[in-house]
Amino acid sequence: MKQKDIVITGKLSLDAEDLIREYFAIKRVKKIEGFLTSETAFIHKYQGTYGYREMRNIDFHAVYQIEKCDKCLKPYKVSINDRAHLYRYLQSTYKLCLGCKGFHYGIGQNFSMKFDGDIAS
């Protein structure tokens, strides 16, 4: 799972854009990605600033490339809204692409073909 892009919807000040990029900033150590700052350290550092207030009122997300879908084994991209969403995604049992997830929640459940475990959303 690799971070590919950060998407910001709407107009922001340069300070707020920099904060969003810092919020999702990662470092790689031997192919393992991690955030540069923790969630609490980031909040304590910027909580009272104008850029932080502006950041909290705009739509933004990070795009991650997943190596393979657990069903069809094809790579796919997923939008992650914030760090909590990323942690839930990483902890899920199955990570499915949009096509396989649609099948699972549509036709698959009608025929009782369910996965045993959490499916990433």
Automatic annotation (TrEMBL):
It comes from the Bacteria. This is Uncharacterized protein.
